[in-house]
Every structure is written in C-alpha cells, then in structure tokens.
Amino acid sequence: MIRVVVVDDQELMRVGFRMVLGAQADIDVVGEAGDGAQAIELASRLRPDVVLMDVRMPVLDGVEATKRIVAAGTARVLVMTTFDLDEYVYAALQGGASGFLLKDTQPDHLVSALRAVASGDAVVSPSVTRRLLDRFVGTGGAPMRDTAELDVLTDREREVLVLIAKGMSNLEIAEALFLSEATVKTHVGRILAKLDLRDRVQAVVLAYETGLARPGLA
Fold first, then answer.
1. For residues 204 and 135, what is the distance between their CA atoms, to the nearest angstrom?
2. What span, in angstroms and rounded, lies between the C-alpha atoms of 100 and 93?
C-alpha cells in the first residue's frame, strides 16, 4: 500500500483528493493537514510514503514544510499548484520536492504521478517545467551554478541530461538517441550518481542552472 498524507488549507480540496486516491486499491490516505506545520507533524508521526502538498497555506507554507519534511527524510513530497504560484513551486523543487502537478490535473494523472513518486521516481511536466525555468532561471541563459559540475559526465550523459531537462521519459530518450530503454536507464542512473542528485527533478533544475539546457531551447 502507498500511504499518503493530503495537505491543503481548503477542506473541499482535501475531500476531493481523498475520494480520488481512496478509490485506488493500492493507495491509503492515512492523514490530512490544513497547514504546513500540521503536515510536518503528521509526516513525522505517520511516516507516509508521499505527502501531497499544497503551497499557500496559513501558519507555515508548503515550500518550507516541503524543505523540512525532505530534510528529515520522513516522506517524499508531491506539490500541487496553479500557474500563478510558479515562484513557490520552483522554491519547492529546490527544497527537495519530487515534482509538481497543477490542481486541475486529471484524476488518473494524479494517481499515476503519486505512484511514480512513491516508487522513487519524480514527476516533471515538460510544459510547466519550461514555464518555471524560463521565468526563474533566467531568459538570458546565464548559468547560476558552476558548469564545472558537469565535467564528470560523458558526452552521451550530457546529451541524455539535456533530454531529461525537456521532461522526456526514458522511452522517449531512447527513441530520440536510437538507444535501448535499458541503456538510457543506465545513463540516467549514472548521471544522478555522478552529480549526487536524488531524482530527475533535481537533474532538470541542475541542467538549467548550469546553462546546459536553456529556456526556449529545451
């Protein structure tokens, strides 16, 4: 069973998420919270697999709650947001969130994303990722981090990292580079290990922050 804590300051939203997730045989909503402070307490006490996290909430916002939950290693966090909260989501990704979804995401997409995060993967929406990074990493393309961090990668690994930054799946990368999916999976694993990254979300952020990928081009 995938154990989930739902965090949103609107009770109606929590009820909706509980109905969608509770209808799945492999998902158990073990708790609900209306603010970030409650989310941290529940995550620490219940040790869920995933916290479904809202961003703007009273007492403590979802960004800070995400940072503390991830730092404590109590759960993985999937952030729910709307387009007008872009800056908060980027901060949440930097704080360790395993991905983000829009609140108008279709129920089946929400379920599949939650399963992916629970299994250790990350959820990267190409369109939203591009929008976020175009706005907050800088349209001028100036690197925010030392590009020397990427020196440990081979040319092929750099190529794969650029495609990860596009939000492409392993299968899509395999088709683009004429490789097997297993080979791509190996490359992705090596990229994460060499760069000391937790998942694909962090890889996307790093690709943009070092200038390897650039808004409007990736």
1. 15
2. 8
Of 148, 54, 59, the C-alpha closest to 101 is 54
Reported as a single tens digit per residue, the pLDDT across 119-139 is: 877 776 655 666 666 655 554
Phi-psi region of 124 (alpha: psi -120 to 50; beta: other; left: phi over 0): beta
Q: What are the phi and psi torsion angles at 138 (to 5°)? A: 110, 120
How is residue 70 written in tokens? Answer: 């991830």
- Phi, psi torsion values for 71, nearest 5 degrees: -60, -35
Characterize 107-142 residue by residue with b for buried, 16 or more Cβ atoms within 10 angstroms of its Cβ, and e for exposed: eeebbebbbbbbeebbbbbeebbbebbbebbbeeee
Question: If you search the block for the tokens 């979804």, which residue do you land on?
Answer: 101
Residues 139-153 pLDDT 10s = 454 556 778 889 999
pTM (two decimals): 0.72
